[in-house]
Write a structure and sequence with these properties.
Elements: H1 3-8, H2 13-27, H3 46-64, H4 83-99, E1 106-108, E2 117-119, H5 120-142, H6 150-160, H7 186-193
Antiparallel strand pairs: 1-2
Helix pairs in contact: 2-4, 2-5, 3-4, 3-5, 5-6, 6-7
C-alpha cells in the first residue's frame, strides 16, 4: 500500500494515547530546576518545549472540534506553576477531542499549511509523531531514558517518511533530516529523519 494511503486509513488514536503516556512518563521526571536546560530544539529551553507541546495539544484539540483555523488556538499554552499538571491536562483535552472526531472529518492546521485542511487520520498522525519525538527531546535534556515500544517506533517512521523537508527550521518541531549511522537502530533512524542527533546531550 502507498505510504500516504496507509496513514489515511489508519486510526492513530490508540497509538496517540500510548505516545501521550510515553511523553508524560518523561515529563514526570522533570525537576523545577531543569526547566532552563537546553533541548535538542535550539530555539527552546525545556520550559519552552513543554509549553510548545501544551500549545500543540490545545491547537489539535481545537482542530478536532472544528475550531483550529485561528492561529491563536495554537498559541495559548501555559505551564503555570506545575508543568506536569499542565501537560496532563492538555493531553487529556486532546485525547477527548480526538475521541469525539470522525476520521473522515478535516482538521485545520494553520501552523503546517495556511488555508488548507488535512484529513483527520493524517492530522492525528502528526500529533502522534510530535509526542513520540518530543518525549525524546525532554529525555535527552534531563538525561533520562527514552523507551518507545517497537510499535510506536514503526508507526512513527511511517509518519516521518512523509514529512517534507521544506518548512523545517528555527521555531518548528522538526529540523532538516540528518544522516543515520550505518546500522542505526530504528528509533535512532527516526530521530535522524526528524532532524535530531541521537547522540545529543545537554
Amino acid at each position: 500500500m502507498d505510504p500516504l494511503n496507509e496513514l489515511l486509513t489508519t486510526d492513530f488514536r490508540p497509538l496517540d494515547r500510548e505516545a501521550a503516556d510515553l511523553y508524560l512518563s518523561v515529563v514526570a521526571q522533570v525537576k523545577p530546576d531543569a526547566l532552563r536546560l537546553p533541548t535538542p530544539c535550539p530555539d527552546w529551553t525545556l520550559h519552552g518545549l513543554l509549553r510548545h507541546q501544551v500549545s500543540q495539544d490545545e491547537g489539535f484539540a481545537a482542530a478536532a472540534r472544528g475550531e483550529g483555523a485561528r492561529l491563536s488556538a495554537w498559541r495559548g499554552g501555559d505551564l503555570g506553576e506545575d508543568p506536569l499538571a499542565a501537560a496532563r491536562a492538555s493531553a487529556g483535552l486532546v485525547t477527548e477531542a480526538f475521541a469525539g472526531a470522525a476520521l473522515d472529518a478535516r482538521f485545520d492546521l494553520p501552523e503546517i499549511r495556511d488555508g488548507g485542511a488535512f484529513p483527520a487520520a493524517l492530522a492525528i498522525s502528526f500529533h502522534f509523531v510530535d509526542l513520540v519525538v518530543h518525549a525524546w527531546d525532554v529525555a535527552a535534556a534531563i538525561g533520562t531514558a527514552w523507551e518507545p515500544g517497537a510499535e510506536l517506533v514503526e508507526a512513527s517512521l511511517k509518519v516521518a517518511a512523509i514529512v517534507p523537508e521544506e518548512g523545517r527550521g528555527p521555531g518548528d518541531s522538526f529540523a532538516p533530516s540528518v544522516p543515520s549511522a550505518d546500522g542505526a537502530e530504528p528509533r535512532d533512524h527516526l530521530l535522524a529523519l526528524l532532524g535530531r542527533d541521537p547522540a545529543w546531550r545537554s
